[in-house]
Amino acid sequence: MLRTTALTKRFGGLTAVDSVDFELDNRLTSLIGPNGAGKTTFFNLLTGALAPSNGRIELDREGGWVDVTGRTTHETAQFGVHRSYQITNVFPTTPVLENVRIAQQASSNDSWRLWRNVGSFDENYERAHEILERVGLDGKADQPAENLSHGEKRQLEVGIALAGDPDVLLLDEPNAGVSTEDVDDVRRIIEDVATDHAVLLVEHNMDLVMEVSERIVVLNQGEIIADGEPGAIRGNPEVQDAYLGGYEPGDLRRAEGVA
Fold it and tell me: Which residues are within 8 A (CB) of 151 and not within 5 positions of it... i.e. 6 or more apart?
């Protein structure tokens, strides 16, 4: 679905992403690593928010690989790569449905036409309702986004990323700031969207990562140090030293008194 070859990003004398070879397939894949490992920079490269210093980014389009290196964020989105953000990024006073409809329209070929037909508007509204139902917010379609709980805003973020029917979905900490009670809703949404999208997840909640991931890639100091199934990653001594630090399943839930 998506691959990088020798992808590198330097900021002056700092190499944030160091010659990364990576390929995303249909397995639900998580990208983990300590703060400063290069995860956000890697996401920004994949979406066109940053231009690489070296290397190549390619997308599998109808059986052939297309080089999208250096494309803008809008161009990358048109190629089918969408992203949710670590910081909630919605229009607060705009109804929930409109947040998704606007994203749906912006992702369509119709978005650049001076005169748009009524049918396209109807289709965008219909699709927006379908997306809200999928992320569990259809019952709040007419409410301003600012009325949603933080967890619901994260769900809306995923819904906005789904607008335009992307092939690849990059989820940047969808669980950030979410209460313990809402974690299961986030988990359900991640698992659901992974049934028909290639998903790359960045998440610091290791219980969530270990439960939903089919594959985990570990980034440290801009380099991939491990790539495999959750069990193998959990037992990898280098990963333990660099990031997990003795993590055991349920640690987070026990710390919060919910296990």
Answer: 178, 179, 181, 182, 185, 186
Burial of residue 212 (CB within 10 Å: 0-12, 13-18, 19+) is buried
133 backbone φψ class: left, alpha, beta (φ>0; ψ -120 to 50): alpha
Closest by CA to 199, choosing from 183, 185, 182, 216, is 216
Nearest to 71 by CA among 85, 61, 57: 57
CA 223 remoteness from chain centre: 20
Report pLDDT digits (tens) over 63-97.
Answer: 799 999 999 999 999 999 999 876 677 899 999 99
**C-alpha to C-alpha distance for 178 and 48, rounded to whole angstroms:** 28
pLDDT (tens digit per residue) in 181-231: 888 999 999 999 999 999 999 998 999 999 999 999 999 999 999 999 999
Going from the C-alpha of 152 to that of each of 83, 101, 193, the distances in angstroms are 17, 17, 16
Q: What is the mean pLDDT of residues 100-105?
A: 91
CATH number (2.60.120.260, 3.40.50.2000, 3.40.50.300, 3.30.420.10) of 2-91+166-255 reads 3.40.50.300
CA distances from 56 to 2, 67, 139, 148, 225 (A): 11, 7, 43, 39, 20
Instruction: Write b or e for each residue in 15-29: b if 16 or more Cβ atoms lie within 10 A of its Cβ, otherwise e.
Output: bbbbebebebeeebb
pTM of the model: 0.88
- CA–CA separation, 226 and 241 (whole Å): 12
